[in-house]
Amino acid sequence: MPYLFGIQFSGLLTLGGKYKQDVGCNTRFCAVADANPYERGGFTVPGTFPYQTVDVRFRKDFPNLGQRNLSYGITLDLFNALNHTNLGCYQTGSRTATNFGTSTCVVTDARRYQLGAEVNW
Length: 121
Hints:
Helix content is 0%, strand content 43%. The chain is an all-beta fold. It has one domain. Mean pLDDT is 76; it is low at 33-44.
């Protein structure tokens, strides 16, 4: 955005696809009757990205004020700008459990703001 008062813009979009999860109990730790050899991706609608986060940065550099070798800058960062809730810790121990496939934690922070200042001399 160079024509908008000299403000610089940058961003980072992270899209995570489905990942393999063990569903059921592993034969090494459970009885053969409890074993489930199938694996399944994340518990989302097929064709979507279950993990999404957008990070954005705005930066403004100011002209030298007073001294020739002194410069200033201000930065505003937005982490998880769209405030997408990324779930994790899915219950996959037993397919017959009532809470099978439900999430018990959030793996990313909520939207955060960060303001920074820079002085160079």
